[in-house]
Design brief:
mainly beta; 4-stranded antiparallel beta sheet; 6-stranded mixed beta sheet; Methylamine Dehydrogenase, Chain H; globular
Length: about 350
């Protein structure tokens, strides 16, 4: 008997500016925001209502998008173009600040990096990555395009996709992801252990000068993280947040100094970080979106508040998180399992 897995994505948007009345009681049926005080610090936990509404149909969703008022592109909900590959998956996408260059990492089959413009679904160029699923990122101005392919890190030429720079990782590592600072002056490559190795590594590359060079390296044992989940720079480039499945790290990007680290409960997504690096957000498979705020007095982050994904009969995950540059608005995705083998 075949099992069916149905996936729908829900997105929650959370703002710092709206908080309900503080409530201190403990109840499984409680809905609202609880104020938590510990060791002189204050945090908030938001418990949401169960989703009792029906699932929106695709037709209704598209109708709502097309009724949006505004210009073409985002405000009008118009599709400029679309493209597909019958045997590959567009696993990773990255967009420059102007929205004119879309970098895509295709996986599963015909693995490659493709650059698209906003004018056409025909690729400007393709860069094959052999048998490896690529990870990609692009700087804000589009002048830096980074990609990984197995045991290699590449900087690709925006004009034709040729290799401007490549770095071969040692045999004990393979690249799991890459992220660029907004100004393109730095790249961080996360490398998982390979073969019998138990060491996981983060490489920080200096791209500001002539030939790129390694700026700093951070090693951690697999027993602490299991696998890398992802990384993100703050918009000003001062900090970088890196997450493994069970651990979060925040560094000064200039020299790799570890500012703070903390246990995570089974995350599979990159942490989000505000423009100045003062707010960090994580999402985990225990169903929590946790928001951490920097305390300059103690030089560490503390839990500002946490949001619990609506409960279900089987399991609820917080699957992803993002934050605005000013740190005032957070977006989070969820994956809810009402029964074994089914999800929405």
């Amino acid at each position: 008997m075949k099992s069916h897995f149905i996936l729908f994505l829900f997105v929650s948007i959370i703002t710092f500016s709206f908080i309900t009345d503080n409530i201190y009681g403990q109840s499984k049926d409680f809905v609202g925001t609880k104020k938590i005080e510990k060791d002189g610090k204050i945090a908030f936990e938001t418990i949401s209502t169960r989703n009792k509404g029906g699932i929106e149909s695709l037709d209704d969703h598209l109708l709502g998008m097309n009724n949006s008022q505004g210009e073409q592109f985002v405000l009008g909900g118009s599709v400029l173009w679309s493209t597909q590959d019958p045997v590959a998956i567009a696993n990773v996408v990255a967009l420059n600040a102007a929205g004119s260059s879309a970098l895509t990492g295709w996986g599963l089959n015909d693995m490659r990096v493709s650059l698209y413009s906003d004018a056409s679904g025909n690729p400007v160029w393709n860069f094959p990555t052999g048998q490896y699923d690529p990870f990609v990122d692009i700087s804000g101005d589009g002048s830096r395009m980074a990609a990984t392919g197995g045991t290699h890190f590449y900087l690709l030429n925006p004009l034709d996709g040729t290799i401007d720079y490549q770095f071969a990782l040692p045999d004990s590592f393979y690249a799991s992801s890459v992220t660029l600072s907004r100004d393109g002056s730095m790249a961080v490559v996360l490398a998982n252990a390979w073969g019998s190795s138990t060491t996981y590594r983060a490489y920080a590359f200096d791209l500001a000068g002539g030939t790129p060079s390694i700026k700093w390296i951070f090693d951690v044992q697999g027993s602490e993280i299991t696998n890398w989940a992802g990384a993100n720079f703050s918009a000003d480039g001062s900090n970088i947040a890196i997450a493994g499945r069970y651990h979060l790290y925040v560094f000064y990007s200039i020299d790799g100094t570890l500012i703070w680290d903390n246990f995570l409960d089974n995350t599979e997504s990159a942490p989000a970080i505000s423009g100045d690096g003062k707010v960090v957000v994580t999402a985990d498979n225990s169903g929590f979106v946790q928001t951490w705020h920097f305390d300059s007095g103690n030089n560490e982050y503390f839990l500002l508040w946490q949001y619990k994904v609506p409960p279900s009969a089987f399991s609820s995950w917080a699957s992803s998180a993002g934050i605005s540059a000013d740190g005032n608005t957070i977006v989070a995705g969820s994956l809810i399992f009402p029964a074994s083998g089914n999800a929405y």
